[in-house]
Design brief:
Largest sheet: 4 strands, mixed
Number of helices: 0
Shape: globular
Length: 102
Amino acid sequence: MSADGCGAPVQTATAADIDTQGQVVLAGTVNGTAGPLGGAYVRLLNGDGDFAGEVQASPQGDFRFYAAPGAWIVRALHRSGNGEASVTAEGPGLHQVAISVA
């Protein structure tokens, strides 16, 4: 459990050259107008909009999910605003997602 008690594990950065070991990895950064937003809650929703998971972004705004192939929505919630992005992961590997919060 994270230090704030919400249950979402704090994330670390994911390098573009990591070995995903055959898994689908959705990873990226939450950004605001002044740069990366640490501490944002990042939710993973399936293509139908159903909740699949949540993590807390690292202090650098980084997040990471392990998912199945398919269409996903990644939504960031932060005290300064919200944002979302869509990503389609056709198969295993690192799938980069950038979320702008306004």
